[in-house]
Amino acid sequence: MLGDNSLSFVLCAHNARDRIGDCLSHLSRQRLIVGQGYEVVLVDNGSTDGTADLARQVWQREGATAPLRVVPEPRLGLVHARLTGIRAARHEVLSFVDDDTWMAPDWVATALRTMEEHPTVGLVGAEGEARFPADGGPPWFQRFRHGYAVGPQGPAGGGPVPLGDIFYGAGLTVRRSAVLSLLDRGFTPLLTGRTGAGLASGEDAELCLALVADGWDTWFQPSLRFQHLMTPRRLTEGYLEGLFYELGRSVPLIETYRQVIWQRQGKGLKALWRSPVPRVLAATAKLGKRRLARMGATSPADVLSARISAAFFRGQLRAYGGYWSQGPALRRSIRSWLDNPAQGTDHDPARYETHARAG
Asked: Whole-number mean pLDDT of the chain?
C-alpha cells in the first residue's frame, strides 16, 4: 500500500530562470483521481539567477493548489540535489523532474497506479519525447536519443526489464523508503552527475543499480510520458561527442555494480565478463574498430557514428586507467552496505522546513 496515495515531484534546478516557468506550468496541471495529491519539492542547486523566486511567482500565477516547497542545496551536482529532495519529500512515491522537462497531466495518477499494482517494483522508467526548436532536430538525433533521455526504455507495452538494465534519470519514479534504506546502510553515490554546465553522467544508472542490487524490481511504463526540451546548444555534434565521452567514463563503476549483482545471483560467468580485464579488452577492440570505420566511412552519418562511438570507448578506457587500484575497494564498499542493517537515520522532512517556502 502507498499510504497517503500522493506523490512528490523532486525538481532539481541550477540557474534555470529561463526554463523553470514552463516546467512548473505543466506540473501545476495534473489531473488527479479523487483522493490523490502531490507536492513539488524544488531543490535550488546553487542558483544565482533568482530561479527560486521566479518559481514561487509562477506557481502562484498558475493558481496551483499543490504545495511548492523550495529547498536549497549549495553543493553543485545533480545527485546531491536529488538526495536532498528525496530526504525533504513528504510522500512515498517520488518522481524526478529536470528543469527542462514537461510532465504529462496524468503523471501522478499513472505513477501511483503503477507502484500500487507492482509492490515489488522499486523504480519505474518513463518515456521521454524530444521537443525541438522551431527548425527541428538534426538527422542524427534518433540514433543517439537515449543519451538525451528520449525514447522507450523497455518492451512496447511496458513491463519488467532485464536484470541489470538501467533507466535514465529524467522522469524516473522511485520509492522513497527504498532509497532511504540504502542511505541508512551506508550507500554513498560516487557519481555526482551534472554540475552546472558540465556533462558528467551516470548518477541515474548508479541509483538504479543500487536499488536492483538491493532486490527491487524494475518496470517500464510507456504511459508515463514527458517532453524533454532540446536547446540548440545540445544539438551540436561537439555537445554530442562530449556527452558520450562522459557516459563512457561512468562505465567502470556501472559495471562494478553489475558484477556484484550477478555474483549475488550466482551467475559467475556474467560477473566475470563485467570485471575490468575483459571490459578493457572489449573497449579497446571496439575503439580500434570504430577508428577503422571512421577512416573508411563515406557518408557524414557513418563518420559521425564512428566518431561518437569512439568517444564513448575513449571515455571508458580513460576511466579504467584509474580504476585498477580502486575496483576491489569499490566492490567491497557496495557489498558492505548491501549486507549492513539499517541504522535508523532521521529522514523526517520537517528537518527541512526552515528552508522551505510555500509558493
From this structure: 87
Q: Which cell numbers hold the place of 228?
A: 524533454
In the chain, alpha helices (H): 20-27, 51-61, 78-88, 107-117, 176-184, 203-213, 237-249, 251-264, 268-273, 276-296, 300-321, 327-338
Single out the residue of 156, 214, 215, 143 nearest to residue 185, CA to CA: 214
Share of the chain above pLDDT 70, in %: 88
**What are the grid coordinates assigned to 262, written together?**
550477478
Domains of the chain and any CATH numbers? 6-231 (3.90.550.10), 236-323 (no CATH)
Per the listing, cell 522551505 goes with 356
Place of cell 543517439: 144
Can you give the pTM of this predicted structure?
A: 0.89
pLDDT, average across residues 197-224:
83
C-alpha dihedral over 123, 355, 199, 50, to 10 degrees? 130
Q: Is the dihedral of CA 349, 354, 356, 358 positive or negative?
A: positive
Instruction: Give the largest CA-CA distance in the chain.
Output: 61
Above 60 in pLDDT, residue 354?
no
Query: Residue 84: what pLDDT?
Result: 96
- Indicate whether 45 pLDDT > 80: yes
Q: How far apart are CA 101 and CA 231, in angstroms?
A: 12
